[in-house]
Design a protein that fits this description.
single chain; alpha+beta; four-stranded antiparallel sheet; 33% helix; globular; binds zinc ion
């Protein structure tokens, strides 16, 4: 098996509890290149081919790969290079907030709900989950550190 981009939210802790390989991205028992949860994580092969698919699912790898970055702009550039679309969502004490978009089609379609001008109670539970899954709120600090809410 090979690296598979994560398209939707997947619980890495649930995977960790299961017996589904040592690599979260190919589910093989392969030497771990970067530990993500306990002793398990991502293998060398998957790390070499890694692309962000879902910011919430990929948060541990994103944190790992951006830890050497030293400024807000470097981290933003890294995310853009990974084709992650960022919608600015305010600034507080020099920490900038964004919505990192996982699914642009859904994000755009439900824009009014996401930005609070329409009520999420208007849609059914399954749609609500789909909307919540279409983006992750993130914060990028001046020193380049990133915090991903999921
Ligand atoms: Zn792998």
């Amino acid at each position: 098996m090979e690296f598979r981009k994560k398209k939707s939210y997947e619980d890495i802790y649930k995977w960790h509890r299961s017996n589904n390989g040592t690599c979260f991205y190919c589910y093989e028992d392969a030497p771990v290149a970067a530990k993500l949860v306990g002793e398990r994580g991502i293998c060398q092969e998957c790390l070499a081919h890694f692309r962000v698919g879902h910011v919430g699912t990929d948060r541990h790898v994103i944190t790992h790969l951006t830890k050497g970055l030293r400024s807000h702009d470097e981290t933003v550039a890294w995310l853009r290079k990974q084709s992650v679309k960022l919608a600015p969502n305010g600034e507080h004490n020099g920490i900038r907030s964004y919505l990192a978009i996982n699914n642009l089609g859904i994000f755009d379609y439900y824009h009014d709900i996401i930005y609070g001008s329409a009520d999420i109670a208007e849609v059914d539970e399954k749609t609500a989950r789909k909307i919540m899954d279409s983006y992750n709120a993130i914060e990028i600090y001046q020193d380049g550190a990133i915090r991903i809410c999921y």
